[in-house]
Amino acid sequence: MSGYPPIGSYAFLSDCHTAALVAPDGAVEWMCAPRFDGPSVFARILDRRRGGAWELHVEESFVAERGYLDETLVLRTRWEGAQGSVVVHDFLAMSPAGEAGGMRPVRLLVRWARCERGRAVVRSRVLARPDYGAREARWTGRGEVLEEDSGLILAGAPEPESRTVLREGESLALTLDYTGAAPTGHPGRLLEDTVRSWRAWSARSGYAGIGAREVRHSAIVLRGLLYDEGGGLLAAPTTSLPEWPGGPRNWDYRYVWHRDAALTVLALLRLGHQEEAGGYLECLLRQCGGDGERVPPMAGIDGRPVTEESVLDHLEGYAGSRPVRIGNNASAQHQLDTYGHILDAALAYHEVTGELTGRQTATLWRVVRLARKQWREPDAGIWEVRGAPRAWTYSKLYAWVCFDRAVRLAELLGEDGLPLDEWRAERDSVREDLLAHGYSQEADSFVQSYGSTGADASLLRVPLVGFLDGRDPRVLGTLDHVQSRLGEGGALLHRYDPESTVDGVDGPEGAFLLCSFEMVSALVLAGRTAEARDRFETLCARAEPLGLFAEEMAPDDGSMLGNYPQAFTHLALIEAALNLDASGTTDELHDWAARGG
């Protein structure tokens, strides 16, 4: 890896406005300002020489212990040496706000080192490289506060490089404000407020079932990816971490994908976070308004269109993985499944809360009208292939979901003047079309696209959305087909067979963790609960020590691949755990699946 730490070894910090990744040696190697999708000020994770980082280490010491404080995204690192020991707390500061469990960002990166034994020397070096490493920092000083032209304010040291001697009981607090405001607050108080904020939020959920520790931690990760000003969920806080080292499958994931909608709303609702579910749905529906002929599959975190893809040629990329991209051209694709995810999320939310408004339902009916015009067209599919559009079976499945949820939502609301008979007819037409062309007698399985025999792990969702019962022979055949063609490394699955999929991008990729967890959920509905439990435990055991998952994993050594941490993976983990937990009441679980999850 040419000196690059493993992707899964980074700690994730968030204040729900921006994020930072901290390497095992204590260096902050990724952070964007003034928000998640802003230009980076530290990007060593993408270039060891040009990217920039904030190094912090204790001389003549080693990292003896490293992990999150329980139920938080506060990183605690213990350094041990012959002369002394130091504990460092790294966090993006939060403060309690509003009702219990509410919180707001202070917009301050805090690094607080405290000597707990003997004597120690703490070294800090702030090598900021604003604008994705395009230039060196330009600091001007006043006392122990330094200002940078980009708006960064560093406090606690007279120079970007400092060496501080600490004795037992003494501490050093360094802060970086990324908004141009003067840093305020005692570090102990900032730490206390941040810990209290995270724990109060997590305490809203009373989940104590199967995989409770992993579920609760995944929920905190998801909260860290929810943008505080708009409610949208980032796919990941990074760009261009490779799906295979040295390869070109490097994408910018700092956007909101509508395909995350149903899983996000369901996960938040099932864990007791109704406010965030509502905020996310409102963000989603704002982005679906307008008068365009299609609903784009993704949007910026503020609802604006995604910027066109460009390449940062001056960065070498993680472990030499080029190109380094910002922006994402997938935003211009036609992805039919988007429509079903939106309606699925809306129905789930209204069934639990009853709080959909007339304005929101008007947007939803517009989405249904667009789906009626487009569901017979080929599209780019959930995997956003950059080759020719085709009739993806998964896309047709979610066209069915769109009409099915629209009918059920309209019946629930009792709205007059809606063409319910026409929507029911469309639902039946999609079902007949999918069963006729998306299922292969030869393969004894649902297949990737009409006319193919290729396996595709996205079709594990056939029973999860209630299209067929989980014990239907066609579902069981699909599970076996997917496992035999795409399984590798125990519980891992690839998302599709590269030999039957022309996706327009060269190079290999790792196993896809979303699909690996979705197999767990599908096996539960198939009645193969013991097998599902074994898979779930195997996958959770392959998480890195900090409990974070990327998009993909190398089957041979278990290393994380792709952007990190990945919302999709943590959402699928939560879904799998909750399905396993409900499997004790099989009838109830099958009723839930029949209603669409």
UniProtKB/TrEMBL annotation:
Q: Name one GO biological process term.
A: carbohydrate metabolic process
The residues covered by the GH15-like domain are 225-577
| Annotated ranges, domain Trehalase-like N-terminal | 5-138
- Gene3D superfamilies annotated for this entry? 1.50.10.10
Molecular functions per Gene Ontology? hydrolase activity, hydrolyzing O-glycosyl compounds
Give the matching InterPro entries: 6-hairpin_glycosidase_sf, 6hp_glycosidase-like_sf, GH15-like, Trehalase-like_N
**Name the record gives this protein:** GH15 family glucan-1,4-alpha-glucosidase
Taxonomic source organism: Nonomuraea thailandensis
What taxonomic ancestry is recorded? Answer: Bacteria, Bacillati, Actinomycetota, Actinomycetes, Streptosporangiales
